[in-house]
From TrEMBL:
This is ABC transporter substrate binding protein. It comes from the Bacteria. InterPro entries: ABC_SBP_TrpX-like, ABC_transpt-TYRBP-like, Peripla_BP_I. It holds the Pfam family ABC_sub_bind.
Length: 329
């Protein structure tokens, strides 16, 4: 009798232990699953300037729109501060931390990520010339682990606006960074489109932000206006460009609204926030299972004219009514 009772309690104890162990295992696997459901995203921004910050804001909202907010997404965000060696080490860090997908905001960071991994999907955030930057071979059918969003500035429309607003401009100085692949193709295109409009173009390439001030002095002596591509180095030191042009009383035609706001005269621009939004949404879709090879590069190439009226006034520039009507500001 006694033995029987002991046996029963032992059996009950054993059953309890089995139940407890099973529950523990269940709980662990539940936790693992919820971790597996968290989208681990690595973002590398090349440098801080308003346009790229605006793109990153759009990226986060794009993810949210696709259901990735709160615990559903864990973003590891790094900023290379315009330093090429940081681009390399930070790209490697984001790969080593086993992120599911990587976003590179601006060309140099997308290039850094693409060379750090051939397996983790890389989504380009606002890369002007993905083919020229050797990030994809075919925009419609990417064949590696890289796809994304391209900001193809409407350069022909910019050259046209320049002719309309400042018909007396004969020579245009183009300032850009010699190390950015994104700028090279834009400068080539601008040269061609400006030539068609009868403008003479001179190029001024700088190796870093340190040379901007002295280069601007030479440029302004020899040119009637300044044109700037979507160049990260120039964007990150834009106040230097503005103060030089202001002194010389010559107009700056940048390629982005944030730089028009900060003292440029006018441009035809693509919305930076929307670029980010599209980048975030694309990243989300790929995380949900869409293949990179089935995700063509999304190209923004239709811009809106925008004019800084305050700058126009200080330069005594008349804005024709039809330009004013169609412009965003
Ligand atoms: N398109 C740029 C690149 O390929 C990045 C960029 C986006 C940018 N918006 C900008 C650069 C505005 C300067 C200003 O790197």
């Amino acid at each position: 009798m006694k033995n029987k009772r002991l046996l029963a309690s032992l059996l009950a104890l054993a059953a309890l232990i089995v139940i407890l162990l099973a529950y523990q295992a269940y709980d662990q696997s539940k936790q693992k699953n919820s971790n597996a459901n968290t989208f681990k995203l690595g973002v590398l921004q090349y440098v801080s300037h308003e346009a790229l910050d605006e793109i990153y804001r759009g990226v986060k909202d794009g993810l949210k729109k696709e259901g990735y907010s709160g615990k559903k997404v864990k973003i590891e965000f790094l900023n290379a501060e315009g330093d090429q060696s940081k681009v390399q080490t930070m790209s490697q860090t984001l790969v080593n931390h086993n992120n599911d997908l990587l976003i590179g905001i601006a060309t140099p960071s997308a290039q850094g990520l693409a060379s750090a991994t051939k397996s983790i999907p890389v989504v380009m955030g606002a890369v002007t010339d993905p083919v020229g930057a050797k990030l994809v071979k075919n925009l419609k059918k990417p064949d590696g682990n890289v796809t994304g969003v391209s900001d193809k500035t409407p350069i022909a429309a910019q050259a046209k606006l320049m002719k309309t607003l400042t018909p007396n401009v004969k020579t245009v100085g183009v300032l850009y960074s010699s190390s950015e692949d994104n700028s090279k193709s834009q400068v080539e295109e601008f040269k061609q489109k400006a030539k068609e409009k009868g403008l003479k173009v001179s190029e001024y390439a700088v190796p870093s932000t340190n040379e901007i001030s002295t280069t601007m002095n030479v440029l302004l002596e020899k040119s009637d206006a300044v044109w700037l591509p979507l160049d990260n180095t120039i964007a990150s030191a834009f106040p230097t460009v503005v103060s030089a042009a202001k002194k010389a009383k010559k107009p700056i035609y940048p390629s982005v609204d944030t730089m028009v706001d900060q003292g440029g005269l006018a441009s035809v621009v693509v919305n930076q926030y929307e670029l980010g939004l599209a980048t975030g949404k694309m990243a989300a879709k790929i995380h949900k299972g869409q293949k990179v090879t089935d995700t063509p590069v999304y190209i923004f190439d239709k811009g809106k004219p925008i004019i800084n009226k305050k700058v126009a006034k200080t330069l005594d520039i008349n804005i024709p009514a039809e330009v004013l009507k169609s412009s965003a500001k």
